[in-house]
């Protein structure tokens, strides 16, 4: 059940003096079970791009297919689609509105027209997944901490049991503790439910250690679409786009320039540690 | 979508109208509205329409943009037309059926009312399209300074207005975002009975109110932090001065007004 974008173009304010060509001829295919990072500088069009995945925005030109079907074809049920492709916006805690956490999480499944029993089950299951226990059910969403609010909001989308979960900057504005909580939730999610997670971020650091595929968006175009290692190989071009490779990649490069034979394309701290230790070991033997 | 609120938003193009002093544009709009109520015959309205179209032409804002801005007031227009059509008495009677009576003065009144409303909205839209909110309130503050003598807090009112105007696009954006977020959770804003649709607004309005309060508090803190203490002794970065273009515009404005009065008197 892939999501496919075919030659998608999108304009804001078409035909006025404020016209902006946001997406330029985008072609993408996202499969179930993938863990993808979408990276781009502020204003690169990444947030616009993901709103095409569940039909919130209609491409000015081109097609979006889910499971081979055009989601803007006649009679296509886009509300049902939004249950399959869950989208968590930036600062999702701003969408909370109910008097208590539990009822708020029920909003999604209730809109799907499920039975009362099933709604409750799903709400409980997703709150458990994000690590909010029963003591939170009856609390007002507005008395929670920032990280808890965000997890409650994510649970609201998870309760719809999507096959794809798209998150726009899920860690923006959180302290390191809150950030780790969110990433922990995402990993559990993939392991327990096997759903595809698509993570939007402007920070390579966040994404590099988790995802298996990186899509780099630059000025409305897909600049790179590959495994992290291959994408970071182009770190000089990434810099021109206002992005960067993870810090460890730079350290590895610098070590190499100083004559230590480390793998220049390490992307995570453990990888770098292993590579550096190995290089040191070899050097010792060489002497 | 909510983002499409065209009424009252600045339209950034370069034109002689955009460069005029905001005080000039404010008084022009006011006098234009007065002229619409002075007008009482087709010739006056023709002149008013022609003047507005000319001004729109000079402003280089597409007419399409104005028409889009008229959409939200369509219902109001329709209702006021119907009221005028059916509730104006007089002679001669054109149609009489059950409790409905349409008279010739009624028809005339309805048409005048519609034209007047459309021109009024488009005229004031022209001002907001060609003037940024900041210069608008600047103009208002300076233009109404004489009211200070009567203890009217002119600066405070202008500040409140500029903040309110500044928040319109922000809140519209915010509403758009929240609406999308709720739609992503399967909310349905488009279908259902009136009661259902009103209920569907709750998930939109609650977060919107909360966000408005949050932004208001943040703004108050930011102003406080920069030692804002009202208008006393505050200087401007760009003080307003009339240019030759403004004088010409004033001349044209008074000529137009004189013509409208003349047309009313002689016809």
Plain-language structure description:
The complex is a heterodimer of chains A (287) and B (267). Chain A is α/β, with parallel strands linked by helices and 287 residues long. Chain A contains eleven helices and ten strands. Chain A has two domains: 3-244, P-loop containing nucleotide triphosphate hydrolases (Rossmann fold), CATH 3.40.50.300; 246-287, no CATH class. Chain A has helices spanning 46-53, 78-84, 101-111, 116-129, 146-158, 176-193, 204-208, 228-232, 235-240, 247-257, 269-286, and strands spanning 3-12, 20-30, 35-40, 61-66, 69-70, 85-88, 164-168, 196-201, 213-218, 221-226. In chain A, helix 3 runs parallel beside helix 5 (146-158). The radius of gyration of chain A is 21 Å and the shape is globular. The model of chain A has no long low-confidence stretch (mean pLDDT 89). With 267 residues, chain B is mostly helical. Chain B has two domains: 1-131 and 241-267, no CATH class; 153-234, no CATH class. Chain B has helices at residues 16-19, 22-38, 42-59, 63-70, 74-87, 104-130, 133-143, 154-184, 194-200, 202-225, 244-266; strands at 93-97, 100-103. In chain B, strands 1-2 form a two-stranded antiparallel ribbon. The termini of chain B are far apart. In chain B, 24% of the residues are buried. Chain A binds chain B through residues 15-18, 51, 54, 56, 79, 82-83, 86-89, 92, 94-97, 107-108, 111-112, 142, 156-157, 160, and chain B through 11-13, 62, 64-65, 177-178, 180-188, 202-203, 206-207, 210-211.
Distance between the termini of chain A: 56 Å
Head-to-tail CA distance between termini of chain B: 46 Å
Strand fraction of chain A equals 15-25%
Instruction: Average the pLDDT over all residues of chain A and give the rounded result.
Output: 89
* Number of discrete helical segments of chain A: 11
Main pleated-sheet profile of chain B: 2 strands, antiparallel
- The residue ranges of chain B in which pLDDT falls below 50 over 5 or more consecutive positions are none
Helices and strands of chain A, in order, run as EEEHEEHEHHHEHEHEEHHHH
Helix content of chain A: 40-55%
Largest interface between protein chains, with number of residues from each side = A-B, 27 and 23 residues
User: Helix share of residues of chain B?
Assistant: 55-70%
Q: Kindly provide the radius of gyration of chain B, computed on alpha-carbon positions and rounded to a whole number of angstroms.
A: 23 Å
Q: Mean of residue pLDDT of chain B?
A: 87
């Amino acid at each position: 059940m892939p999501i496919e974008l075919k030659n998608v173009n999108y304009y804001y304010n078409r035909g006025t003096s404020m016209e902006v060509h946001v997406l330029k001829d985008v072609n993408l295919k996202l499969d179930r079970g993938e863990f993808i990072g979408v990276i781009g500088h502020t204003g690169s069009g990444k947030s616009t791009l993901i709103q095409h995945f569940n039909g919130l925005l209609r491409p000015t030109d081109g097609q979006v297919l889910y499971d081979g079907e055009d989601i803007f074809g006649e009679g296509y049920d886009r509300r049902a689609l939004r249950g399959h492709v869950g989208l968590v916006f930036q600062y999702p805690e701003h969408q909370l509105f109910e008097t208590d956490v539990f009822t708020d999480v029920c909003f999604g499944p209730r809109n799907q027209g499920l039975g009362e029993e099933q709604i409750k089950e799903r709400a409980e299951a997703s709150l458990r997944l994000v690590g909010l226990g029963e003591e939170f059910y009856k609390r007002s969403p507005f008395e929670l901490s920032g990280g808890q609010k965000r997890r409650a909001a994510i649970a609201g989308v998870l309760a719809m049991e999507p096959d794809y979960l798209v998150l726009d900057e899920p860690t923006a504005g959180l302290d390191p503790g809150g950030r780790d909580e969110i990433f922990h939730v995402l990993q559990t999610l993939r392991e327990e439910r096997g759903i595809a997670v698509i993570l939007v971020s402007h920070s390579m650091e966040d994404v590099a250690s988790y995802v298996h595929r990186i899509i780099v968006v630059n000025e409305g175009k897909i600049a790179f679409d590959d495994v992290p290692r291959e994408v970071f190989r182009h770190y000089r071009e990434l810099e021109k786009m206002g992005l960067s490779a993870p810090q460890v990649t730079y350290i590895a490069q610098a070590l190499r320039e100083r004559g230590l034979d480390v793998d220049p394309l390490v992307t995570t701290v453990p990888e770098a540690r292993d590579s550096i230790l190995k290089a040191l070991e070899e050097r010792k033997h060489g002497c | 979508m909510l983002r499409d609120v065209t009424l009252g938003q600045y339209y950034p193009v370069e034109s002689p109208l955009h460069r005029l002093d905001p005080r000039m544009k404010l008084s022009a709009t006011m006098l234009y509205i007065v002229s619409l109520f002075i007008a009482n015959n087709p010739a006056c309205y023709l002149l008013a329409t022609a003047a507005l179209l000319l001004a729109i032409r000079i402003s280089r804002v597409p007419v399409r943009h104005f028409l889009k801005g008229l959409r939200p007031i369509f219902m109001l227009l329709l209702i006021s037309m119907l009221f005028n059509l059916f509730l104006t008495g007089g002679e001669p009677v054109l149609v009489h059926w059950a409790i409905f009576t349409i008279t010739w003065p009624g028809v005339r009144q309805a048409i005048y009312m519609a034209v007047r409303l459309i021109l009024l909205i488009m005229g004031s839209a022209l001002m907001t399209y060609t003037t940024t909110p900041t210069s608008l309130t600047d103009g208002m503050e300076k233009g109404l300074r004489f009211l200070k003598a009567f203890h009217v807090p002119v600066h405070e009112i202008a500040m409140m207005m500029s903040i309110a105007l500044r928040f319109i696009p922000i809140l519209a954006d915010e509403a758009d975002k929240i609406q999308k977020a709720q739609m992503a959770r399967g909310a349905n804003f488009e279908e259902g009975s009136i009661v259902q649709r009103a209920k569907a607004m709750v998930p939109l309005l609650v977060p919107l109110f909360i966000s408005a309060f949050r932004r208001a508090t943040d703004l108050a803190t930011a102003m406080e932090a920069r030692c804002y203490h009202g208008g006393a002794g505050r200087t401007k970065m760009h003080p307003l001065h009339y240019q030759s273009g403004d004088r010409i515009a004033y001349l044209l404005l008074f000529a137009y007004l004189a013509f409208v009065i003349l047309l009313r008197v002689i016809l």
